[in-house]
Prior knowledge:
40% of the residues lie in helices and 12% in strands. The protein has 4 helices and 6 strands; from the N terminus they run ββααββααββ. The chain is elongated and about 100 Å long. A hairpin with a 2-residue loop joins strand 3 (64-65) and strand 4. It has a domain at 14-82. It has helices spanning 21-40, 43-62, 70-82, 107-117, and strands spanning 14-16, 19-20, 64-65, 68-69, 143-147, 153-157.
Amino acid sequence: xxxxxxxxxxxxxxxxxxxxxxxxxxxxxxxxxxxxxxxxxxxxxxxxxxxxxxxxxxxxxxxxxxxxxxxxxxxxxxxxxxxxxxxxxxxxxxxxxxxxxxxxxxxxxxxxxxxxxxxxxxxxxxxxxxxxxxxxxxxxxxxxxxxxxxxxxxxxxxxxxx
Length: 162
């Protein structure tokens, strides 16, 4: 069974001649403002007012900026100028390749490099794995030897919660 798939779903329907409903409403509102102002304004004020209203209503109806209607672009510009802004700056990289570490390193820099790239365990923080490097707890504490999922043995302090 075949189904018809709708195409051009992002294009509005043309209701009044070549104009969409939104475009027609912009132009009709501008014409209505010009028509009403004709009876309430002097001719000297009415002519510039009608030119401005006609230009605004025609531009809202027909002009697109970056593929978007002019009204949405105007709203985005207004919100850009009225809302607070936050500027994020990152210092540009000065070197093109990796830089060699400095020859004279301080104690903290050497320890940091050893922690990142070293293979020896740092005493008191890491524990070497394997049977020969197994650390034992003092004899006064009750200890059990357990194997974890990988098969490594670990000393575990036994706690009695009675």
